[in-house]
Amino acid sequence: MSSPSESLLSLVPVVPVVVIDDLAHAVPVARALVAGGLPVVELTLRTPVALDAIAAIAAEVPDILVGAGTVVSPSQVEQAVEAGAGFLVSPGSTPSLLAEMSACGLPFLPGTATVSEAMAVLEAGRTEMKFFPAEASGGAAYLRSLASPLPAARFCPTGGITAATAASYLALPNVGCVGGSWLTPADALAAGDWDRVRALAAEAAALGTSGS
Predict the structure, then answer these.
(1) Tens-place pLDDT, residues 153-175
(2) Of 119, 132, 136, 186, which has the maximum CB count within 10 A?
């Protein structure tokens, strides 16, 4: 899938945030998420096989938009682009990282956790950003308080969000989607329980039509 012409925050209500330890899991996970109605996945660059997993999904599951998460350095931006990532997500935003992501040509969500960080991203000409770690940084109440002073900012909160709390974030006017790791539990991946992943994805996809 090519880079989206529409907002990253408008593609799905929940972006699955996935850690792949076994390269053999990458394609089945992606296919299960698509079958559940979530054609977007963020693979974190936290494991040795992450870049290969992005490349495998990009090549074999054309129906999904695969992104690279936990991008923390300019060099990782280049590696993710070369692997075939369709978007980038960072946990924070340094000036050099923000510049490199801006120059790479891919959609991206720079990480923010404070008002000043959100303002810096806005000053760089970007209105869409990640809010991380969401629960530890004040949660939905904190994001609600940012809507008035920073009306242009829109967020994808990630970090500590669960199936039970996702709707409270999605109800906020400045939240377009949330990132969640609960869709791909480690034990489900280890067992190859793709039906469970598909079912969890379907429940999350329904949050976008629940009127929350």
Answers:
(1) 999 999 999 999 999 999 999 99
(2) 132
Task: Calculate the dihedral angle through the C-alpha atoms of 45, 46, 51, 52, rounding to the nearest 10 degrees.
Answer: -150
The DSSP bridge pattern shows strands 111-112 and 128-131 to be: parallel
Q: Which of 6, 82, 130, 135 is catalytic?
A: 130
Tokens of 71: 């991008």
Q: Enter the tokens of residue 166.
A: 């996702």
135 in active site: no
User: How high is the pLDDT of residue 208?
Assistant: 84
> pTM (2 decimals)?
0.95
DSSP state for residue 100 in the 8-state scheme: H
User: Is residue 130 annotated as a catalytic residue, yes or no?
Assistant: yes
Q: Nearest Cα to 204, choosing from 35, 26, 2?
A: 35
Q: Which of 42, 100, 117, 123 is catalytic?
A: 42
CA 101 and chain centroid, separation: 15
Concatenated DSSP letters for 130-171? EETTTTTTTHHHHHHHHTTT-TT-EEEEBSS--TTTHHHHHT
Give the integer Cα–Cα distance in Å for 175 and 106: 21
